[in-house]
User: Which sequence fits this backbone?
C-alpha cells in the first residue's frame, strides 16, 4: 500500500486538476476566474480537519501519554497551517473575483484567520519549549483550548457581520453549488486534496520520527 | 510573647503516630525509572525507607538523586515503576501524598516581598490550617526552635542566605510532615550551618522520616541511619550505618 | 457524611483560592510594579487616542468601544505575566505544586487576581477617557458595568491560562501575545460590539446576543480548564 499510495494521490490530483481547468465549464457570471474556488474550498476543509486531528490527538496524548499522539498533533498542525494559508490566499482571490474586495470581514474569512493565528501560536509555542514531555503536555492543552475557541470566534463574527453587512455587489448571487459538473469537480478536488493531506501527514510523521531517532543517536554518542 | 491557645487545636505529641515503630515502610519504590527520551535519569530504583529513619541518597552530580527526590515529592512524574508513601500511591493519591511530605529544594520557596510570618502563615493555610491563633502559635514554636523568632516580621528579601534557608526549612516542616525531603541541604553551608542542620535532623527524626541527598560522603555517613549510593541513575549499594 | 465531605471540598476550594489571591495582592501592594505600569499605560492610551481623535470629535461614539477594549487588552497583557510566569521565574511555583490544594483553586485565585488588576486599570481608563474625549454612555450604568466586567473576566481567564502555558517556554513575554491571539476573538468581539451599542443608548435586549456569547465563552473555558489545568500544572 505504501508504494501504491503516492501513485493514487498523483492520479487523483491529476484528475482533479483536469476537471478544474479543463472539464468544469465556465461559470455563468464569472467565467473562468471562479476556478480558484475548487482549490479554496478543499483547502478550507483540510485546514479544519487538520485542527480537529490536532484536537483529538491532544486529548489522546493527555489520556495515554503516548508520544505518537503528540507526533500526530504537531504534524497535523504544521500541515493545517499550510492549508490554512492556502485557504486564506485563495479565499482572498475568490473574494476579489466574487465581491470585488480581497478582504471583507466575512465571518468564515475572519474565522479562518483566527484559525491561522491558532496554528501559528501552537507551532511557535512548541518551538519555545525544549523539554519533550513538557512540550507534548502543554501544547496538548493549548490544542484543546484553541479548538474550543474557534466556534465562538465564528459566532462572534456572525454577529459582527449583521452590524457590518458585506457590500452587495452584482456578482454576489452565484449559482456555484447548483451545476452538477461543478459539484462533481468540487467533490473530486476535495477527495484528491484529502488523499494528498493524508500522504503529507504520513510523510511529516515519519520525518519527525526520523529526527527523533537522529537526536537519540546523537545523545548516545555524546554519552 | 507566648500566645496561649486551646490544646485541642494542636494535637499533643502523645497522640501522634509512634514513628519509632519501624514495622512498616513509610516510602516504598519499585523499579522506579525516569527517562527523557532515551536518557535515563534514574533506572529501576527500588528502595524502602522505614519510619523514623534518616535516609541518605549519595552519589556524584548527575547520579539521579534530585530526580528521585522530585519524583517522591510529586514534582516530577516517573516514566515507569511504582512508588508509595505511607501506602498512598504517588500517582493515584497525589493529594494525600502531598499532605504527608515537606520538601526543601536548592532554591527557597518563599516570597521575598513578604515577611517570614506572612510566608509561613500562607503555607500553613495551604496545608489546611485555618485557625489564626493556632497558626501564630505554630509559627512561634517553630521559629523559636530554630532561634530565629526575632526575624519573623522581616521581609525574606532582607535576610541573609543562612536565615532564608532556615525559614525555608521551617516552611517545609511547619505542617509536621511524615516525610521530609531535602535536596542537597548541606551544600553552601559553613561548618556552623552544617552542625545546626545535623542537630535539626536528629531532633526532627522523632516526628518525621528524613530523606536527603548529598554528594559529600563524609556528611552523608555521619548523619544517616542508612545510605543508598546512586550512579548514572542506578543503585550501586545500600548500607546500614546504625 | 458524603455531603459533609463535598461541602468541605467546596469550602476548601474557595479558601485556597482566596489565600492565593490574598498573597498575590499583598505582593503587588508591596512591589507596585504592575500598578504603576497600569496607571502609566492608562494615561498614555488616553492621551494617544485623544491626540488621534481630537477633542470634540463628532464621530467619537464610533470609536469608543474599540479604543476602550484595546486599552483594556494591553493592560491585561501587562497583568498576564504576573499570573504564573512570575511564580516560575522566582521558583515559587514548586511551592504551589507540592501544596495539597486543587489545581483549579490555584487557577481561580490567579484569575481573580488578574481580573482585579484589569478592573483597576478600567477604573482609571474609562472615566479619564470620558473626560478627555468628551463622551458618555447613554445606557443604563449597570449594563455598562456588566458588559465591561464580563469582558474583563473572560480576558482574565484567558490571561491566567496563557500565563500558565507560557511559564514553560523561553521568551515568555513574546509568547504570551502569540498564545492569546487565537483565544481572544471569541470574547473581545462581543465585548466591543456590546460596548459600542451601549455608547449610543442600547438596552438589554439589544446587547443580549453579545452577553450570551460572552457567557457561553466563560462557561466553556471554565469547563475546559477545569478538566485540563492539572495537566498544565503537574507533570
Assistant:
Amino acid at each position: 500500500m505504501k508504494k501504491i499510495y503516492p501513485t493514487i494521490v498523483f492520479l487523483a490530483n491529476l484528475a482533479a486538476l483536469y476537471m478544474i481547468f479543463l472539464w468544469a465549464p465556465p461559470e455563468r457570471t464569472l467565467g473562468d476566474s471562479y476556478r480558484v474556488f475548487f482549490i479554496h474550498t478543499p483547502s478550507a476543509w483540510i485546514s479544519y480537519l487538520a485542527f480537529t486531528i490536532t484536537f483529538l490527538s491532544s486529548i489522546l496524548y493527555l489520556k495515554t501519554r503516548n508520544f505518537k499522539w503528540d507526533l500526530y498533533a504537531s504534524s497535523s498542525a504544521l500541515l493545517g497551517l499550510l492549508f490554512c494559508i492556502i485557504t486564506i490566499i485563495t479565499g482572498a482571490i475568490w473574494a476579489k473575483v466574487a465581491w470585488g474586495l480581497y478582504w471583507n470581514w466575512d465571518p468564515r474569512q475572519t474565522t479562518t484567520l483566527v484559525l491561522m493565528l491558532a496554528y501559528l501560536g501552537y507551532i511557535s509555542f512548541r518551538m519555545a519549549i525544549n523539554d519533550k514531555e513538557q512540550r507534548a503536555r502543554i501544547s496538548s492543552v493549548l490544542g484543546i483550548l484553541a479548538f474550543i475557541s474557534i466556534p465562538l470566534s465564528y459566532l462572534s463574527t456572525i454577529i459582527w457581520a449583521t452590524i457590518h453587512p458585506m457590500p452587495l455587489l452584482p456578482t454576489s448571487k452565484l449559482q456555484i453549488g447548483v451545476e452538477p459538473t461543478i459539484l462533481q469537480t468540487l467533490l473530486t478536488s476535495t477527495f484528491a486534496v484529502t488523499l494528498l493531506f493524508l500522504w503529507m501527514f504520513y510523510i511529516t510523521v515519519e520525518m519527525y520520527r526520523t529526527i527523533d531517532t537522529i537526536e537519540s543517536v546523537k545523545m548516545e554518542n555524546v554519552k | 510573647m507566648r500566645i496561649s491557645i486551646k490544646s485541642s487545636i494542636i494535637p499533643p505529641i502523645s497522640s501522634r503516630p509512634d514513628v519509632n515503630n519501624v514495622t512498616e515502610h513509610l516510602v516504598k519504590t519499585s523499579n522506579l525509572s525516569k527517562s527523557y527520551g532515551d536518557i535515563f535519569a534514574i533506572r529501576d530504583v527500588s528502595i524502602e525507607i522505614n519510619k523514623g529513619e534518616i535516609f541518605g541518597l549519595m552519589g556524584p552530580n548527575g547520579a539521579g538523586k534530585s530526580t528521585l527526590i522530585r519524583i517522591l515529592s510529586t514534582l516530577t512524574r516517573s516514566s515507569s515503576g511504582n512508588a508509595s508513601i505511607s501506602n498512598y500511591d504517588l500517582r493515584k493519591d497525589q493529594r494525600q501524598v502531598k499532605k504527608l511530605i515537606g520538601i526543601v529544594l536548592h532554591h527557597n520557596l518563599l516570597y521575598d516581598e513578604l515577611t517570614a510570618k506572612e510566608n509561613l502563615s500562607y503555607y500553613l493555610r495551604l496545608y489546611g490550617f485555618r485557625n489564626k491563633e493556632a497558626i501564630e502559635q505554630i509559627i512561634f514554636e517553630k521559629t523559636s526552635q530554630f532561634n530565629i523568632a526575632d526575624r519573623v516580621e522581616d521581609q525574606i528579601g532582607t535576610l541573609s542566605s543562612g536565615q532564608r534557608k532556615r525559614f525555608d526549612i521551617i516552611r517545609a516542616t511547619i505542617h509536621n510532615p511524615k516525610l521530609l525531603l531535602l535536596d542537597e541541604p548541606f551544600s553552601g553551608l559553613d561548618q556552623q550551618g552544617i552542625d545546626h542542620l545535623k542537630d535539626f535532623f536528629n531532633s526532627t527524626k522523632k516526628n518525621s522520616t528524613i530523606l536527603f541527598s548529598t554528594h559529600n560522603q563524609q556528611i552523608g555517613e555521619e548523619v544517616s541511619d542508612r545510605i543508598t549510593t546512586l550512579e548514572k541513575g542506578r543503585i550501586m549499594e545500600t548500607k546500614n550505618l546504625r | 457524611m458524603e455531603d459533609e465531605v463535598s461541602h468541605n471540598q467546596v469550602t476548601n476550594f474557595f479558601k485556597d483560592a482566596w489565600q492565593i489571591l490574598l498573597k498575590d495582592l499583598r505582593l503587588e501592594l508591596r512591589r507596585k510594579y504592575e500598578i504603576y505600569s497600569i496607571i502609566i499605560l492608562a494615561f498614555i492610551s488616553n492621551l494617544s487616542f485623544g491626540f488621534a481623535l481630537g477633542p470634540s470629535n463628532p464621530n467619537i461614539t464610533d470609536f469608543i468601544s474599540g479604543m476602550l477594549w484595546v486599552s483594556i487588552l494591553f493592560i491585561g497583557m501587562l497583568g498576564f505575566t504576573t499570573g504564573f510566569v512570575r511564580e516560575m521565574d522566582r521558583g515559587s511555583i514548586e511551592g504551589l505544586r507540592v501544596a495539597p490544594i486543587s489545581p483549579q483553586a490555584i487557577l481561580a485565585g490567579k484569575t481573580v487576581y488578574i481580573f482585579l488588576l484589569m478592573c483597576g486599570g478600567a477604573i482609571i481608563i474609562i472615566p479619564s477617557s470620558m473626560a478627555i474625549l468628551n463622551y458618555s454612555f447613554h445606557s443604563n450604568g449597570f449594563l455598562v458595568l456588566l458588559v465591561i466586567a464580563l469582558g474583563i473576566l473572560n480576558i482574565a481567564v484567558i490571561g491566567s491560562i496563557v500565563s500558565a502555558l507560557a511559564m514553560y517556554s523561553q521568551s515568555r513575554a513574546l509568547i504570551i501575545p502569540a498564545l492569546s491571539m487565537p483565544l481572544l476573538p471569541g470574547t473581545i468581539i462581543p465585548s466591543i460590539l456590546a460596548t459600542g451599542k451601549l455608547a449610543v443608548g442600547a438596552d438589554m435586549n439589544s446587547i443580549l446576543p453579545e452577553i450570551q456569547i460572552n457567557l457561553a465563552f466563560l462557561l466553556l473555558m471554565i469547563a475546559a480548564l477545569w478538566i485540563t489545568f492539572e495537566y498544565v500544572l503537574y507533570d
Observations:
- Residues 167-175 of chain A have pLDDT under 50 and may be disordered.
